[in-house]
Backbone:
C-alpha cells in the first residue's frame, strides 16, 4: 500500500507544486492524469523518492520514506518499488537477462535466473534473453521494463507514461500486463499519464 500526504515540491520560487493526497491499496490500480506541465512525472519521482519533497510524506506499507537516509531510501526503493519509465533505461552493454538480474543486484538479493526466465516467457520475450536490449522492438523493450520492475516482487509499481508512444493494440497489451503483474504479486499500481485512452480502463483516477 502507498499513501502520500500533503506533498509539495519546488524547482524554483515560480515553479511550485502542491499535490493531492493519494492512497493506493495492495492489488489496486490508480491512474493519475494531467496535461504536460502539471507535475505528473515530478509526483511519480516524489512517490519513488527519486526527488525529496519540500514537505509532506510518502508511506509504503508501514515505512515513511521521507524519514529514511539517502542510503536507506536507495535500498528500500530497490527492494520495494518497481519503476517503469516512459523511455526504458537499460545498460546497453548487458544482455536482456543481465538487465533483469540487475534489479536483484541493486536490491542486494541473490540473482534469480529462474524468475527472470519465467517472467520473460510469461511476457513474451523468452527467446530474446541473450540479446542486447537495442536489438528488441519498442514493444519488447517495454515488456522487459515491466519484467525488471517486478523482479523483486515490489509492494508498489510506478509507471510513467507507459503507453503514450504505443499504438492502440500495444497500449491495451501493456496496461493488461501491468495490471496482471500487480495483481499477481499483490502490488499497488500507480500509472501517471496524459494518455486519455486509459480513462476508460482505470476506475480509480486522480486529475492534476
Residues:
Amino acid at each position: 500500500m502507498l499513501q502520500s500526504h500533503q506533498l509539495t515540491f519546488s524547482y524554483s520560487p515560480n515553479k511550485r507544486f502542491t499535490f493531492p493526497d493519494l492512497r493506493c491499496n495492495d492489488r489496486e490500480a490508480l491512474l493519475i492524469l494531467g496535461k504536460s506541465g502539471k507535475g505528473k512525472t515530478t509526483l511519480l519521482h516524489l512517490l519513488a523518492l527519486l526527488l525529496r519533497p519540500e514537505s509532506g510524506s510518502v508511506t509504503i506499507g508501514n515505512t515513511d520514506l521521507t524519514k529514511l537516509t539517502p542510503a536507506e531510501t536507495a535500498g528500500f526503493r530497490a527492494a520495494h518499488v518497481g519503476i517503469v519509465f516512459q523511455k526504458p533505461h537499460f545498460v546497453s552493454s548487458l544482455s536482456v537477462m543481465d538487465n533483469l538480474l540487475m534489479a536483484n543486484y541493486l536490491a542486494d538479493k541473490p540473482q534469480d535466473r529462474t524468475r527472470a526466465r519465467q517472467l520473460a516467457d510469461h511476457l513474451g520475450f523468452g527467446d530474446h534473453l541473450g540479446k542486447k536490449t537495442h536489438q528488441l522492438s519498442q514493444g519488447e523493450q517495454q515488456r522487459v521494463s515491466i519484467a525488471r520492475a517486478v523482479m523483486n516482487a515490489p509492494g508498489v509499481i510506478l509507471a510513467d507514461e507507459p503507453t503514450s508512444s504505443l499504438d492502440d493494440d500495444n497500449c491495451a497489451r501493456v496496461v493488461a500486463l501491468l495490471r496482471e503483474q500487480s495483481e499477481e504479486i499483490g502490488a499497488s499500481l500507480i500509472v501517471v499519464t496524459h494518455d486519455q485512452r486509459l480513462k476508460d480502463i482505470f476506475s480509480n483516477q486522480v486529475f492534476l
